Fold:
Amino acid sequence: MKARTMKRFWAVLLCLVMVLGLLPAAALADEGPEMETTELDITKTVAQAGNVAPGTATFTFELLLGGREDEDGNPIYKRLGTATITTDGAGTTQHTLSFQTPKDTVDGEYPDTIWYDVYLREIPGGDPCWDYSDALYQVNRSASDDGSYSYTFSLCSESGEDDTQPTAAFTNNQRLPGGKRGP
Structure:
């Protein structure tokens, strides 16, 4: 009986020592980069099909980190975050998307930043009543003297044009029953 109690005592003591030994490592674990809120302006156009105006619709956008390619040269993106907007009816409206992004750090002379390869696009939804925008924009960030940032957008296209825009524009076309598209 005494040997059994001693085995339990040593087992409990060993577990306690192991748990206490892991606590400092857990406390020092990297919590990840410091985050900041990034707000991006977009223009959303909803095109009506037929005589019936679209009702309320929700569209989702994703902010992506690029810079890598697979063996076939296709870009590989890492999702930094998503944001949604809601529209009501046809027309063009302005929206601001809000994302949490890693804050720049300065290590030596040059800042460590993600903003060389950041992209914005709409996530195609599963609603057959919509044709979703396939536009992909590179997000360009400029710093002001006061430390604030402004953003512009360059549409990624095969033509290679470098047309910088103050907002990213996305158009969705409503589909009629039977798959017919709007204007």
